[in-house]
Specification:
Blueprint (H helix, E strand, L loop, with lengths): L1 H16 L32 E8 L4 E3 L5 E3 L4 E7 L9 E5 L2 E3 L2 E2 L5 E6 L11 E5 L7 E4 L7
Antiparallel strand pairs: 1-4, 2-3, 4-8, 5-6, 5-9, 7-8, 9-10
């Protein structure tokens, strides 16, 4: 009997809470409805204007091989890309040269991004070099239509 009485009490309490005039069940008057802001369509980010691409000798003991590995560097080169303004982005840039992808970079001076390659011979001469931030294909820029690799 005591269990049945407890069940009825819980059932009654639940029904009382779900009354139509409870504040949680009342419809929101139109003047209090949340405003929905419409945002203008996103405009594509302006791409930096590449001013110079240089392949220079580098003094490092290890660097990337373009396949995701850091290896001992025997004839390392730095690829320096100078632009009018790189701006700020949430994702890191990836330099792609043919089938090679370089992820480690530094900013030696304002407007310059430097990627270091472990072996000059790994770079395909005359290949297109492009940069892209994350998976955003709209951020891709061609930094050199034919990368000048000194041999």
């Amino acid at each position: 009997m005591r269990a049945a009485l407890g069940f009825v009490t819980v059932l009654f309490a639940f029904a009382a809470c779900a009354r139509a005039d409870s504040p949680s069940r009342r419809p929101v008057p139109p003047e209090r409805a949340p405003a929905v802001a419409t945002t203008p369509p996103e405009t594509p980010a302006t791409h930096p204007r590449v001013l110079r691409v240089a392949v220079l000798p580098a003094q490092v003991s290890a660097a990337e091989d373009g396949r995701g590995n850091m290896i001992a560097a025997h004839d390392p080169v730095a690829i320096e890309i100078t632009a009018d303004d790189w701006g700020g982005r949430a994702l890191d840039p990836v330099l792609s040269i043919g089938a090679l992808h370089f992820h480690h970079y530094e900013h030696p001076t304002i407007g310059v991004i430097r990627f270091v390659v472990a072996e000059r011979a790994l770079l395909p001469a005359g290949a297109e070099a492009s940069m892209q931030w994350g998976d955003d294909v709209g951020s891709r820029i061609v930094v050199s239509a034919a990368l000048p690799v000194p041999r």
